[in-house]
Design a protein that fits this description.
434 residues; D-Maltodextrin-Binding Protein, domain 2; three-stranded antiparallel beta sheet; 19 helices; 11% strand; disordered N terminus
């Protein structure tokens, strides 16, 4: 009965959809758990909005970024709704590539967490609506640490993380002390590595926009990362991204994982994880500073300018990012499984607080991330795990490939960073920064 009630509320909220030109919406989305789950609610949306049908194009994270970037920059028109993030939304919005978003009063845009709303806006206009938001934090096996006679504090040092990983590693038993992203990509291995490097005192660019990737701080951070995964990580770490590591964690094969807070709802789900009752949480590790140690991101829905389905697309986005959608998911899957990181009302909800053991740690991480103050030394850019300039995407991809090569043992860390510095220097010169 509750599902029917929520669907009715959603139908009332979206009753204006009959005024729009109905048709098929092609939606580009990422193959992460909450996005895949959203597709199961297609019948509810289509029933509430007769004449609008949803066509899903679900892609791996790196492929999605490449496809939507190519499509929007060339005005390809393949998609009516795109899944993008805090890097793309303000840049593409400023270029006129995205429709600005305005919703009905019932949507309650002021309920969106300020960090998420601000990161998806340009000049006060919202260009993407957050489906779920995240920072990063430590997810660890408390039972294994207890057995080793160790504890985990909030914001532990990277040295303590290495000690804990060593204590939990048992390669003969297929247990690895730590799992971290290694797959190349500006939003993949470099999302994690940038936050790690930030905490070691590194930065992407100096104040005059010259790249700083061959600095001692970067060398220290990346050398530590490679050594950590080589000694205590699973085989094939150079190919692991979010979904691969999630599977390892849920099978009980990883002692620690430092990654997106959104993973907490999956690793604590008894239907998905064999160790759901053994996972605890802490804030991200630090080396010489806590600045920029944890990222800030929102997988969000946006409308490319020029689509002929703009009204229907807005109707869909309003539905998918609303309070009512969160309640709809809760009614079917429970409050511990709802998309998080977007709305104050979710964290204020007693049902969510009771179901989500990770709620406090997740919100603390999100609120502590500061894109305007993410490095130990001053820089000319904003962003925690990225630099918010158009050239960063190409730079991040090139650098990510070098870091993966170093992790795989194909080249030395110093060589990888020298190559990364050269690639970044070429892009910045091409962009006219100096």
């Amino acid at each position: 009965m509750k599902t029917l009630r929520i669907t009715a509320v959603a139908a009332a909220l979206l009753g204006v959809s009959g005024l729009a030109t109905a048709g098929e919406l092609t939606i580009a989305t990422v193959n992460n758990g909450h996005m895949v789950e959203m597709q199961k609610f297609t019948p509810e949306f289509e029933a509430a909005n007769p004449g609008i049908t949803l066509n899903w194009v679900t892609l791996e994270e790196g492929v999605l970024r490449q496809r939507v970037t190519t499509d929007i920059s060339t005005k390809g028109g393949q998609f009516d709704v795109m899944t993008i993030g805090m890097y793309e939304a303000p840049i593409w919005g400023s270029r006129g590539w995205l429709e600005s978003l305005e919703f009905s009063a019932d949507y309650d845009v002021d309920d969106i967490l300020p960090a998420m709303r601000g990161g998806l806006s340009h000049d006060g206009k919202l260009y993407a609506a957050p489906f779920y938001g995240e920072s990063s934090m430590i997810m660890y096996r408390k039972d294994l640490l207890d057995a080793a006679g160790m504890a985990m504090s909030d914001n532990p040092t990277w040295g303590h993380i290495a000690d804990a990983a060593a204590a939990m590693t048992d390669r003969d038993a297929g247990m690895y002390g730590i799992c971290l992203r290694g797959k190349p990509g500006w939003g993949d291995n470099m999302a994690f590595l940038t936050t790690m490097a930030n905490s070691f005192g590194a930065k992407w660019f100096n104040e005059d926009w010259t790249p700083d990737l061959d600095s001692p701080a970067w060398n220290h951070a990346v050398s530590f990362y490679v050594d950590l995964l080589t000694k205590y990580g699973p085989p094939g770490s150079a190919g692991n991204s979010f979904n691969e590591i999630l599977a390892l964690i849920n099978e009980g094969k990883c002692g620690m994982w430092i990654d997106a807070t959104i993973a907490a709802s999956f690793v604590t789900n008894p239907e998905q994880s064999k160790v759901h009752d053994k996972i605890a949480f802490a804030q991200s590790p630090v080396a010489v500073t806590s600045r920029g140690a944890n990222w800030l991101w929102a997988w969000s829905l946006a409308i490319p300018a020029g689509t002929k389905q703009a009204d229907d697309a807005k109707t869909f986005i309003e539905w998918a990012t609303s309070k009512d959608y969160i309640e709809l998911v809760a009614s079917r899957n429970g409050w511990g499984a709802v998309p998080t990181g977007t709305r104050t009302s979710t964290y204020d909800n007693p049902n969510f607080q009771e179901a989500a053991v990770f709620a406090e740690a997740e919100l603390t991480a999100i609120l502590s991330a500061d894109p305007s103050n993410s490095t130990q030394d001053p820089t000319p850019y904003t962003g925690v795990q990225f630099a918010a300039i158009p050239e960063f995407q190409a730079i991040g991809i090139a650098v990510g490939q070098q870091m993966t090569a170093a992790l795989a043992g194909d080249i030395y860390v110093s060589e990888a960073l020298a190559n990364a510095q050269a690639a970044a220097d070429r892009e910045m010169k091409k962009g006219g920064y100096y």
